[in-house]
# Entry
Amino acid sequence: MQRMTRQRTALADLLEVTPDFRSAQQLHQLLKDAGQNVGLATVYRTVQAMAEAGDVDVLRIEDGEALYRRCARGHHHHLVCRECGKTVELAGEAVERWASRIAQEHDFVDVDHTAELVGICRDCAARIYGGGARA
Amino acid sequence: MQRMTRQRTALADLLEVTPDFRSAQQLHQLLKDAGQNVGLATVYRTVQAMAEAGDVDVLRIEDGEALYRRCARGHHHHLVCRECGKTVELAGEAVERWASRIAQEHDFVDVDHTAELVGICRDCAARIYGGGARA
DNA sequence: GCATTGTTGAGAATGATTGTCATGCCGTCC
DNA sequence: GGACGGCATGACAATCATTCTCAACAATGC
Ligand SMILES: [Zn+2]
Ligand SMILES: [Zn+2]
Ligand SMILES: [Zn+2]
Ligand SMILES: [Zn+2]
# Structure
């Protein structure tokens, strides 16, 4: 059974108020900054357990580093701003249908899929490309 | 300008006859097995240059390791067998439309997307789940 | 041939993630 | 409240893919 320890509570609370994807290293540092010292190994273990339990989502960035985020339960995808990290959860059925259709067409079974969108949100676009461009 | 060296030729030739995604480490070993000694750093550099040039595709597996594969030029996605590595290139428009629709709906620009399917191909399914099941 | 300059490779360095294991603390049962 | 069994923790070592360094090399152009 999962014991409720100071460390797990602290990490769960932190994730609850963290809107963007963060790495285990970042979470460890954020906890330290908040005066909650939690061992790095514990952060890794806990965040992975939460991922397996479906309580957090995992996202791999370009260099392979894993980022974690508290998310709604259930299968969904993400739209992430590559500048500020703002994240939108996507629950549409379009990708699900595409995946299962492709799986059938090619005689594959047990097909999982990943689908993530990375772009620049309106606010960051205004800041980067010049605030005057937008009406 | 890109010079044509023994190492680059060997790696390009190897990729040309390798149908599945392979890691840099694997490619390095395969070259060694074939009697073509190529430094590991060179394999990494070359395979990354090829990826930037669009000559090979990169796929990140669950633990973050990068796999490379000679692919048709142009944007596409993949359906990969998690048992044998068999890979099918997917060129459909369904995902592209989904991605651009979502981007518009949420006011994001410069949106890239990744979408990969991983399952078990017919042959592996027959071998694993019992060969008698299929008619 | 020869100079120029991009390329190579052995080994060190980096950095995220995982393993180790003695100690600690949660939940439970008196 | 207090003892106990066992999962949880954390400082540290270990792993391992990837990147860096830099002297020695080798395409390419003349
Ligand atoms: Zn999510
Ligand atoms: Zn989906
Ligand atoms: Zn491809
Ligand atoms: Zn696409």
